[in-house]
Write a structure and sequence with these properties.
Elements lengths: L5 E4 L2 E4 L1 H25 L2 E7 H7 L1 H6 L7 E7 L1 H9 L5 E4 L8 E15 L10 E2 L1 H5 L3 E3 L6 H9 L8 E4 L3 H9 L5 E4 L4 H6 L3 E5 L6 E9 L7 H13 L1
Parallel strand pairs: 3-4, 3-5, 7-11, 8-9
Antiparallel strand pairs: 1-2, 5-12, 6-10, 6-11, 6-12
Length: 246
């Protein structure tokens, strides 16, 4: 490196100023080296999931999954764009995404389709409606959750307007935050039906379907690099996931 990274004395070892600057690179190199080795060992699987999928939807599938080759599994949950970046950098083996741009070099399959609903507080004027119309949604700002999931794009297409014209209220960064604001009567939001099942079951939120035949739905995708062998743990898990949800 042409620099002194560690200081040693009878009391032990510590990083130098140069060592602290290099530390993040060293950690990334170590992770990449581990991933390179695991490519051939195929005994370890790192699954990346967007927040909504990882928090609300993935656990029953992982509980049911049993890898015949005994691969150990790690889960990383983050925002959709972060998971896409980690997949591209080789930090995860397979990604579960709310939105994917079908870039070359990857295999992508729909593994689950989620209905989109509007969530409101139980005392909201809409709470008793069987469904919501296009006009009601066009005129009402929506609380925004996690960015990069394609929900805004889906809503704009459903309403027949440009994405830039979509009425958005506060951008809160996560579905958990959105649900708390909705419960407090601070607004309404569009969400995956599966992310609010517990609250709707207990009466803390009301989920309202949208007008249309069919109503808007979001395809959730499982994605892995097309350079992996068919018997790689990522391929086995991805194909199992698609088959299990069929």
């Amino acid at each position: 490196m042409g620099a002194r990274l560690v200081e040693r004395d009878p009391k032990g070892c510590r990083l130098t100023v140069e060592g602290r600057k290099f530390e993040n690179h060293a950690r990334n190199l170590h992770r990449l080296a581990t991933k390179a080795l695991n490519t051939f060992r195929e005994r370890h699987l790192v699954i990346g999931a967007s927040s909504n999928i990882g928090i609300y939807l993935l656990h029953p599938y992982l509980k049911a999954y049993g890898d015949p080759n005994g691969a150990s599994i790690d889960i990383q949950i983050s925002r959709n764009p972060v998971i896409a970046k980690q997949l591209a950098q080789g930090e995860i083996d397979v990604a579960l995404m709310e939105w994917w741009d079908e870039r070359p070099g990857y295999i992508s399959h729909v593994w689950r389709t989620e209905q989109m609903v509007v969530i409101v507080a139980p005392d909201h004027p809409w709470a008793g409606l069987p469904y919501l119309s296009y006009n009601q949604l066009r005129e009402t700002p929506m609380l925004g959750g996690e960015s990069g999931t394609g929900t805004g794009r889906l809503l704009a297409e459903y309403l027949g307007i440009e994405l830039a014209a979509l009425p958005i209220g506060a951008r809160l960064g996560s579905t958990d935050a959105v649900k708390q604001w909705v419960k407090a009567g601070m607004g309404v939001s569009l969400a995956l039906a599966g992310t609010g099942e517990e609250e709707t079951r207990t009466g803390k939120l009301v989920a309202i379907k949208l007008e249309g035949n069919p109503p808007p739905r979001k395809d959730l995708r499982v994605v892995w690099r097309d350079s992996l062998s068919d018997d790689h743990a990522a391929c086995r898990f991805g194909n199992w996931l698609v088959a299990s949800a069929a």
